[in-house]
Amino acid sequence: MEKMDYRDAFKKCSRCGGCLAHCPLYLATNREQYVARGKVELMENVALGNLKWNDRLAQIFSTCLLCGSCTEN
Ligand code: SF4
User: Fold this and answer.
1) Of 38, 45, 55, 63, which residue is most buried, by most CB within 10 angstroms?
2) Distance CA 73, CA 60 (A)
3) What pLDDT is attached to residue 52?
4) Ligand 1 site: residues with CB under 6 angstroms?
5) What span, in angstroms and rounded, lies between the C-alpha atoms of 67 and 53?
C-alpha cells in the first residue's frame, strides 16, 4: 500500500454527504458529528491545530458502531 500524507487523506472525502443516508447513528440522532463526514471534518481541524483534542471529541469518535456502512456506500 502506498504511503499517504495524512493531509491528503482528509482530501479523500469530497464532503458530498453520501454517508449520511447510510449511517445508523446519523439516522437515529440527526447529528453529523457521528457520521463519517463530520468525523473527517473534526479530525482535520484537530490535525490543523484549529481544535484541541478533548474528552468530548474522544466520546464522539468512540461513538461508532463500526458497521462499515459509510465505507460500503
Ligand atoms: S461505521 Fe457505521 S456507525 Fe460508524 S460512522 Fe460509519 S455508518 Fe456510521
Assistant:
1) 38
2) 21
3) 97
4) 22-25, 35-36, 64-70
5) 25
